[in-house]
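Pipeline run #58 for the internal structure catalog. This entry was flagged by the ingest filter as a single-chain record with no existing model, so it goes straight to prediction. Upstream metadata was stripped on purpose; only the residue string is passed forward. Reviewer on rotation: M.T. Logging verbosity set to normal.
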Amino acid sequence: MGYIKELRKVVGSQPLIMVGACVLVIDKKDRLLLQLRKDNNCWGLPGGSMEPGESLQEVAERELLEETGLIAKSLNLLNVYSGEEFYYKYPHGDEVHNVVAVFTCKNYEGGLKKEESEVEELNFFSLQDLPDNISPPDIPIINDYIARI
């Protein structure tokens, strides 16, 4: 997140429009991969913000590998999300208006390996038995995915 960190040095915690991508990883048992985030202690989707020069698919692939150790063999664009319900204030005070490209991934390789500085735990969950503490910006994305299947 070098680009956003550099912007934060100039604008502080003021709201930023943050463009990024995340991935709904679905295993062979139709379970969803979530990560327990260290920043807000909530379960969320692997993903992050775009760096200059990256495509949204490249963001999704990079973040998936960095945060989970998985390599996407194919990604499918689900939707692009933005608007009021994608405003978020991080626990440390930074504010963002997210614009998120969401990809689904059922074809991947590698083993789960968490990114130690950001991720407390990685786990697959049944869509009927998701944890209660889902990261707020990911709730509408997960709900939309469930409504589509």
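catalog note: Helices lie at 2-11, 56-68, 139-148.
catalog note: Residues 2-148 form a domain with the Nucleoside Triphosphate Pyrophosphohydrolase fold (CATH 3.90.79.10).
status: ready for reviewer M.T.
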